[in-house]
Amino acid sequence: MVNLVEIQKPILHWLVKGAGLREQLIEIEPGTFMNFWAPKDVVQSKPNTVNPTSPDAKRKKSKKPKPPLVLIHGFASEGIITWQFQFGVLLTNYAVYIPDLLFFGKSTTPSLDRSPDFQASCIARGLRKLGVEQCDAVGFSYGGMVAFKLAEAYPDLVRSLVISGSVITMTDSINETSLKRLGATSSAELLMPETVPRLKDLLSISMHKKLWFPDRLYKDFLESMFKNRKERKELLEGLVISNMDAKIPVFQQKILLLWGEKDQIFDIDLAKKMKEQLGDNCYIQGISNAGHLLHLERPCAYNRAVQRFLAYVNSTEDTGSINV
């Protein structure tokens, strides 16, 4: 029987390619490959790949390059699925890069390192091979934790951050409090459902609006999206650190915490606390009538907020204030 989720992927890929992005599987280190959707005119950094005196190279140099923007997905699905309502709008003003994190999409590694630090390192090295010297980054949920690590470890690479539905670090206390509130015994039980009722529960707490889908679609989603279960469970285990080891980094970047006001997984009060911890370079904006999946529930409001913040960051006139 045809999987209803899988048959949509070729259509989405066709739309993405029509918008000017291409898949590039990049070897980060021996055996470790990370898949990126990147601008079609980007060539992986290799000697003699592009002749700088060629007409194509001259044309590229004559155009003002768009600032690179990296979109880092969450735990439920790969990059292009997560950002399907964002890439088309953002491509107007930005050179969009969408990585698939390790064990999502075509990205894989033989390494046993399951930390968000390793994911961030692979993104940074992949971007360097794609010729990206500086970028803005948008991270959602699990991808937000990776984005924080990316900004902390590579301040020269990351200029600004937009974070939604995430935390700086998943500590014991944050993890236990969230699981208790949501009635789950582990992150894997919550985020890696194995049955249709469990998937329905996850969708129910992830979205403010209650949507109906036929069970057939839920079954196909389980089959299509929740692969590499062993490795993904290890990724979740690799997130949690003890309260004693947790430290708040001093970020050089401007940060926007863009939150669904009805987020049940990481509520907006947690975002407000993070804003206090991160200081004056951090801003917060809530989106009404949206839960954890705010970029899917309120894509227009989400996209406007991201673009407004990035326009401020990219502005040559830093007024020292922001109206988001």
The geometry reads as globular
- The proportion of residues forming helix, as a percent range, comes to 40-55%
Number of helices: 14
Estimated radius of gyration: 19 Å
Biased composition (Polar residues): 45-54
Protein name: Alpha/beta-Hydrolases superfamily protein
Pfam family, one: Abhydrolase_1
Region (Disordered): 45-66
Describe the 3D structure.
The chain is an alpha/beta fold and 324 residues long. The chain contains 14 helices and ten strands. It has helices spanning 8-18, 55-62, 79-82, 87-90, 116-129, 142-153, 172-182, 187-191, 196-206, 215-225, 229-239, 268-278, 294-297, 299-314, and strands at 21-29, 32-39, 68-72, 95-100, 135-140, 158-164, 170-171, 240-241, 254-260, 282-287. The chain has an eight-stranded mixed sheet with strand order 1-2-4-3-5-6-9-10, with helices on both faces. Strand 5, helix 6 (142-153) and strand 6 (158-164) form a beta-alpha-beta unit. Helix 5 (116-129) packs across helix 6. The chain is globular, with a radius of gyration of 19 Å. The termini are far apart. Mean pLDDT is 89; it is low at 44-52 and 316-323. InterPro entries: AB_hydrolase_1 (IPR000073), AB_hydrolase_fold (IPR029058), Epox_hydrolase-like (IPR000639), Meta-cleavage_hydrolase (IPR052370). GO terms for molecular function: catalytic activity. Residues 67-299 form the AB hydrolase-1 domain. This is Alpha/beta-Hydrolases superfamily protein. Residues 45-54 have a biased composition (Polar residues).
